[in-house]
Design goal:
Helices cover 86% and strands 0% of the residues. The chain is mostly helical and 161 residues long.
């Protein structure tokens, strides 16, 4: 395996390998945002589970307890989507990192690895796009749970009398 003897080849290799780093930066930012969503999902689920397990639970009527279980099921589905999103983002970051290594080695050595680097980069982009689909699905689940401006039934009955 021969390496590039001159500085120009090494400089060009560094320039070529730096381009995917921008995607890697976007991926790391998205991992942080999605991990924050997962933390909120876990906190909400723990809060609901505690409500069911405490003395309050004995005082909950069936309707309220049923609503809590429905919300917990939705939170579980959201958690699955977020975990899938995090797995895809992690795999994307690994593929992009591998692409950077392959591009650098391809430019500074005589290894024929350009096709492998292309496949790694495109696979990383596909993982990123699939992670965005998971993120979109999770946010749709989250907004389905919110009842924007919905007036509780008791308040409507009180207003009519």
């Amino acid at each position: 395996m021969l390496f590039a003897p001159d500085l120009t080849a090494v400089t060009h290799a560094i320039q070529l390998a730096v381009a995917p780093v921008f995607l890697l930066t976007a991926v790391s930012g998205m991992i942080g945002a999605v991990a924050g969503r997962l933390a909120r999902i876990i906190d909400r689920a723990r809060s609901l589970e505690n409500r069911l397990e405490t003395v309050e639970a004995k005082q909950l009527d069936r309707h309220k307890a049923r609503k809590i279980y429905i919300e917990l099921r939705t939170l579980r589905h959201r958690g699955w989507l977020v975990n899938g999103c995090l797995a895809l983002l992690t795999f994307c970051a690994m593929l992009i990192g591998l692409t950077i290594i392959l591009l650098f080695l391809g430019e500074t050595s005589e290894l024929p690895i350009l096709k492998i680097a292309t496949i790694c980069f495109l696979s990383g982009v596909v993982c990123f796009l699939l992670a965005l689909v998971c993120f979109l699905a999770e946010t749709l689940f989250a907004t389905r749970l919110i009842k924007f401006g919905e007036i509780p039934k008791l308040a409507r009955v009180a207003d009519k009398s």
